[in-house]
Amino acid sequence: MPDSHRILLKGGTIITVDPELGDLTVGDILVEDGRIAAVAPDLGPLDAEVIDAHGMIVMPGFVDTHRHTWQAPLRNIGSDWTLGQYSAGMHRGFSTYFRPEDTYAGNLLGAAEALDSGITTLLDWSHSVETPEHSDAAISALFETGGRAVFAHACGASRWQMPSAVDHDRDILRIRDQYFSSAGQLVTLAFAARGPQFASHEVTLRDWELVREVGAPVTVHVGDGEWGKTRPVAWMNEHGLLAEDVTYVHCNTLADDELRMIADTGGSASVSADIETQMGHGWPATGRLLAVGIRPSLSIDVCTSNGGSMFGAMKTTISIQRALDNAAEPNPGEQQSLKLGCRDVIEFATLQGARAVGLGDRVGSITVGKDADIILIRTDALGMRPLNHPAGAVVYSAHAGLVDTVLVAGRVVKRGGVLTTVDAERVGKLAEETRDHLLRSAQAGDRIPDAQLGGDWLPGTVRAPSGDNDGATERSQA
Ligand SMILES: [Zn+2]
């Protein structure tokens, strides 16, 4: 809950992401009752708790619109895996050995790591919640961490054997009533649908009836790799499933007319550039989305492969899109300007993320009246000095270790580089115990008995997807 007292963030370099306010070389922000009450170059001395922001970049907290948070204890185990190896190792393998306490430990670590790195809103794309107890554990960790979060319920491993013929678990109705009936709380609910790539068409249509019954926003993977060529969005459009509260994750191999269908129906997109390039989903769709008028949000996806901070996601996104843009130019060095700027990518990682998860009027920019989800980034490190282009420094030079202070709805959850809402040592230990349990169970079981740490173990691959969904028997999964 927001603090009732006043906080004055004094003398920082402010990147507001508010189109009217822009950037302030030096400025103050007044936070009152958890909301942003004033932004100006100098608010003078005020009766408020002062946080000295000199030498800091002050900006809105990041929004990660798609992360399979439960996987955090298996961090980097798949950094050299293909999509097929990830499907075999993670979904057919480790996911089946998660006990509710492991889901809790995973979500606690993943959510704490996100908050620590300045991600103040995390959409937890939770697709290893096989039982109600698993869901309870995942949600409990999100509430405990103190960040803003969206619990996106996606069932468990048994419903991710593709194409699934099993309907979405109706336990989501219990979850809605038990945890998400009161307005104004920091953790909210979304429906993480498998959609036509991962479930049969019949099941998808029935799942969307449940979507309407639940009344929560939707997030769905579409356009990753070969599946995207089966025109999943065109099929959804024919069946009236496209809507403005749907976030389309990946979008790499969707056709241009499908991207336009998303734009025409007001939907949002989530680009996970790190994982899309590793797993062969196709080129990140950033530029193609922009061409149809969709400004995408960014996401981390799986920490079993890539890092969990938005700094990495921004850098990969801008680097790849600039490479694509330059490759399309006959004389790249003679362009008037680059098409994609650092401020654009910061906006994707903040305001567009907030819009994608339905919180665009609450967070995502430093705007008077919005909730104070704000981060302070140190600029005294050698790699940040001298500070000549704040947005450029955030995208290309900053990292999670420089996030000094984090506020969520005006509550200080990180100060002086230390998270105050969770015991980091306990979180790390729980995650290591879970990792040990998962490895022991895997080695004693018959799914991935050769599982090992260290990077040399490559799980047997699952057959690559092909053809129309209703005909296939076995699929890799995102
Ligand atoms: Zn995903």
Instruction: Identify the CATH homologous superfamily of the largest domain.
Output: Metal-dependent hydrolases
Number of strands: 17
- Point out poorly predicted stretches: 464-477
Q: Quick one: biggest sheet?
A: 9 strands, mixed
Q: Under the CATH scheme, which architecture of the largest domain would be assigned?
A: Alpha-Beta Barrel
- Which shape, going by the Cα principal axes? globular
What is the CATH T-level topology of the largest domain?
TIM Barrel
What structural class do the secondary elements suggest?
A: alpha/beta
Query: What is the CA-atom radius of gyration, in angstroms?
Result: 22 Å
Portion of residues within helices: 25-40%
End-to-end gap? 35 Å
The ligands bound in this entry are: zinc ion
| Discrete helix count | 14
Give the count of structural domains.
Answer: 2
CATH class label of the largest domain? Alpha Beta
Q: How would you state the average pLDDT, rounded? A: 94
Strand content: 15-25%
Topology:
Blueprint: E1 6-15, E2 23-32, E3 35-40, E4 49-52, E5 56-60, E6 62-67, H1 83-91, H2 100-116, E7 119-126, H3 132-145, E8 148-153, H4 171-179, E9 187-193, H5 195-198, H6 201-214, E10 218-222, H7 232-238, E11 246-250, H8 256-264, E12 268-271, H9 273-278, H10 286-291, E13 297-298, H11 310-327, H12 342-356, E14 374-378, H13 390-396, E15 403-408, E16 411-415, E17 418-419, H14 424-444
Parallel strand pairs: 1-4, 1-5, 6-7, 7-8, 8-9, 9-10, 10-11, 11-12, 12-13
Antiparallel strand pairs: 1-2, 2-3, 5-14, 14-15, 15-16, 16-17
Helix pairs in contact: 2-3, 2-14, 7-8, 11-12, 12-13
The structure holds zinc ion.
Zinc ion binds at residues 66, 68, 125, 221, 249, 301, 478.
